Backbone:
């Protein structure tokens, strides 16, 4: 009986979000990701053109910025199979974010795909940067990491908590620090 009530609640929440999004638009859809139950986050991302794999877990308080137009808000996100995304993760969708199979994105991670001062005087010194971010297969991004535009994290990598990643990380590598630097290589397993 508990499961039936839970599923009914999820269905009502999802339909409410979809109905209100038709009235209030994209901003309502994005705000709903922050507040809704984990089970509905995947459905909402898929409904609005995100590519979301199977057997994923996305915790609440997902915060998304620079999303697309209504109905296509999440075209710049691709999450593979068996991924985990922790609480309070920030995704900047000004450009693509690709999270490959079996990746773990811990709580508080920020993935930034652009830097821009906007229409201000400083613009002549700091031009807009926009580039995709890719998190490789089976990589683990620790809590409160920031990954900047254009970075590719290779497969089977570990990024230590609190790091700021400004450069690509080769496969089978552990990095840490601000900015993140290679701390050790990970010896591949024959099964990988």
Residues:
């Amino acid at each position: 009986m508990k499961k039936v009530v839970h599923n009914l609640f999820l269905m009502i929440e999802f339909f409410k979000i979809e109905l209100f999004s038709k009235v209030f638009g994209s901003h309502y859809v994005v705000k709903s990701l922050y507040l809704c139950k984990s089970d509905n986050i995947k459905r909402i991302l898929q409904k609005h053109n995100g590519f979301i794999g199977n057997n994923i877990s996305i915790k609440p308080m997902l915060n998304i910025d620079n999303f697309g137009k209504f109905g296509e808000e999440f075209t710049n996100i691709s999450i593979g199979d068996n991924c985990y995304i922790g609480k309070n993760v920030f995704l900047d969708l000004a450009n693509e974010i690709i999270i490959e199979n079996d990746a773990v994105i811990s709580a508080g991670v920020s993935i930034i795909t652009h830097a821009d001062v906007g229409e201000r005087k400083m613009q002549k010194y700091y031009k807009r940067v926009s580039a995709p971010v890719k998190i490789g297969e089976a990589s683990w991004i620790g809590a409160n990491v920031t990954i900047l535009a254009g970075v590719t994290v290779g497969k089977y990598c570990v990024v230590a908590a609190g790091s700021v990643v400004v450069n690509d990380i080769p496969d089978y590598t552990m990095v840490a620090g601000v900015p993140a630097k290679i701390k050790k290589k990970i010896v591949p397993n024959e099964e990988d």
Q: What stands out?
A: The CA atoms of residues 18 and 93 lie 21 Å apart.
